[in-house]
Amino acid sequence: MGNRGIERMTGRVVLRDLEDAEGTRYLEARVKGDGALIIEGQDLGNGVRKVFGEEIGEYEWSYIIKKENITLVIKALGGKEGDDILELITDRCTGEDAQDLEAIIRSNKIPHEFLNRMTE
Prior knowledge:
The chain contains four helices and seven strands; from the N terminus they run βββββαβαααβ. The chain starts with a strand and ends with a strand. Helices cover 25% and strands 38% of the residues. Strands 1, 2, 3, 4, 5, 6 and 7 form a seven-stranded antiparallel sheet that branches. Mean pLDDT is 90; it is low at 1-9.
């Protein structure tokens, strides 16, 4: 099916929304009321089973970056203080490039909390 569209809403951007024979892959970024950046993803289907084994068909994950560390993300994305974080993420990390966001966070050692969950 391909990418079903990149959408920009107030405070939230959909970076990846794919569906194909391997399943679905979804990733979004949003800014919470307290200023924290939340990056949430969900993969479902055969692609997940290929990575984690037949018994696992769903993988969800979240990165939480506190407001005081947003400037680090902005700079890592090539922006400057005061730039719109969601706009920068949309410009650099949508569609097939969505996976780059995790690498940017980790390679720049940006403080974050990481949560994940796997189910059938």
